[in-house]
Amino acid sequence: MDELNQILTQRRQKADELLAMNVPLYGNDFRPTDHIADVLPHGEEIRVGEPNEDTFTCQVAGRIMALRKFGKASFVHIQDDSGRIQVYLARDVVGEAAYAQFKKWDLGDIAGFRGKLFKTKTGELTILADSITLVTKSLRPLPEKFHGLTDVEIRYRQRYVDLIVNPQVRETFKKRVEIIRLLREFLSNHGFLEVETPMMQPVPGGATARPFKTYHNSLAMDLYLRVAPELYLKRLLVGGFERVFEVNRNFRNEGLSTRHNPEFTMLEFYQAYATYRDMMDLTEEMISWLADEVCGSMEITFQGQTVDLAPPWQRYTLEESLVEIGNIDPAVLADPVKVMELTRAKGIQLAATAGPGKAMTELFELLVEEKLINPTFITAYPTEVSPLARRNEKNPAVTDRFELFITGREIANAFSELNDPVDQRNRFEKQIADRGDDEEIHPVLDEDFVRALEYGMPPAAGEGIGIDRLVMLLTDSPSIRDVILFPHLKPEKK
Questions:
Q1: Is pLDDT above 70 for 1?
Q2: 72 lies in the same domain as 174
Q3: What's the number of domains the chain is made of?
Q4: How many Å apart are CA 129 and CA 181, to the nearest integer?
Q5: 160 in a domain, yes or no?
Q6: What is the pLDDT of residues 48-82, one digit of tens each?
Q7: Looking at the structure, do residues 178 and 97 belong to the same domain, yes or no?
Q8: How much is the pLDDT for 148?
């Protein structure tokens, strides 16, 4: 810390000296006319040697990432949001006053340069600066020698520094933007209308999760940050929109992990006159196309594992997966008592109100989920754990629902929607009655949603895809914090 304080003191001294030289520390009059990425192609036909009158002249701005100062000449490397380039400063070219000013610049300063391109003896494309401008003085040092910011905690907490010194991090977030853009493009091209629904709701619904609670003074009422937009998107189906989607921020008051952040991004879309099987086909098409667009191939690598996203994808019912992958005897699954006994024998704690459907899903999470590396649809989830899904007509104990797993992680959840208002009310009431101390289940029934169903919602299917987990997959990122610009963290230790 003493060394850091010494550096901070030295930098502030330089800042004071620059001010004494009438050099603005935070000016706003330099205008770059070129991005570095646009400058680089002009170097393809330049030969080694000094520039001439016809050589391309550019004006760029960027952060100083490397700095070699000499008596009469210096080299700097600068980067903007498009790339990096070397700049050569000669005292005789920029002038003694400007060069004296430059000698007080530091790594991390933002500066502007104008000059012609040339190539050094080593063949490196370089700007021969004839004009220099300090744009922003940096008072804090970047991580030493630019070997990168390696402390994970600091990387997440000081993302601004992480983005400066780790180019691959910037590329991850650029790819995230591209992924979301392409998802919007795909759905729009398939006739879906992008909409916006409330982020503060009087009754949280659409998922089983503990919400964040707030209070609206003027309305004198409690409101909740949404855990999901589902019930509002279904209201739009009632209103006559037949294909809708929303890229939405959701909030769940739960723990932190490599897969969970209290604030996260979901894509939810709903289609009238469709079933969960239509959603499977659409999802298969969308994600395989997305991977090809973003990664250049449907075969990708995630944390050393090869993942084949090319259709068709494997499909199992929940029971089939427990038998074929979890190695559970089918006779056990057919007997509710034996299912409950096996679940407890595996060390899984169940609530007193839990039934065999809940037990089977817990066994799936323990014995099957992590083994699903290539994309796999798991269907026929028990009605007990699917309060918003349509019952299967042949077997009402299960629903027309699927979850998609890739690399052992849930990526999507979808089902044929329940549109029977009587059945929906009964399920809500049972869920509340069985709630006990479970804070993930809201104790108030959403009467307005049931009323909307009473007006008549067309048969439909809907789906939610975790954007953050999808970005993790397509950028080979091991933690959700690697794909969220500012993830939530515990308070910084003083």
A1: no
A2: no
A3: 2
A4: 38
A5: no
A6: 887 877 789 999 999 999 999 988 999 999 999 99
A7: no
A8: 54
Give which of 129, 124, 119 is closest to 50, Cα–Cα.
119
pLDDT at 146: 40
Query: Using CA atoms, how far apart are residues 439 and 451, in angstroms rounded to an integer?
Result: 25
pLDDT tier for residue 220 given thresholds of 50, 70 and 90:
very high
28: CATH: 2.40.50.140
Q: Clarify whether residues 89 and 173 are in a common domain.
A: no
Structural domain range at position 266 = 165-326+368-482
Rounded to a whole number of angstroms, the distance between the first and last alpha carbons of the chain is 13
Q: In this structure, are 227 and 101 located in the same domain?
A: no
Give the Cα separation of 382 and 386 in Å (integer): 7
Please identify which residue in the block is written with the tokens 């679940």. 343
For the chain, percent of residues with pLDDT exceeding 90: 84
Instruction: Kindly give the residue spans of alpha helices, DSSP state H, lying in 257-367.
Output: 276-295, 318-324, 330-333, 336-345, 356-367
Does residue 149 form part of some domain?
no
- Token pair for 114: 């104008």
Same domain, 206 and 174: yes
Residues 6+ apart with CB under 8 A from 96: none
- Whether the CB-CB separation of 432 and 446 falls below 8 Å is answered with no
Q: In sequence order, what are the residues at sequence separation of 6 or more whose Cβ sits closer than 8 angstroms to the Cβ of residue 292?
A: 298
Give domain status of residue 349, yes or no: no
What's the pLDDT at 437?
75
Same domain, 286 and 391: yes
> Domain check: are 377 and 412 in the same one?
yes
Among 140, 118, 135, smallest CA distance to 127 is for 118
Mean pLDDT of 295-319: 97
Does residue 268 sit within a domain? yes
Cβ atoms of 136 and 25 within 8 Å: the answer is yes
Mean pLDDT of 445-469: 97
Run of H or E residues at 10 = helix 2-20
Chain mean pLDDT for the chain: 94
Residue 485 scores a pLDDT above 90: yes
Question: Could you give the CA distance from residue 18 to residue 105 in angstroms, rounded to a whole number?
Answer: 9
Alpha carbon distance 318, 402 (integer Å):
9
Q: The domain that contains 192 carries what CATH number?
A: 3.30.930.10
CB of 402 within 8 A of CB of 276? yes
Write out pLDDT tens, residues 110-124.
999 999 999 999 999
Same domain, 133 and 178: no
- Residue identified by tokens 């002038």 is 95
Tokens of 199: 């982020």
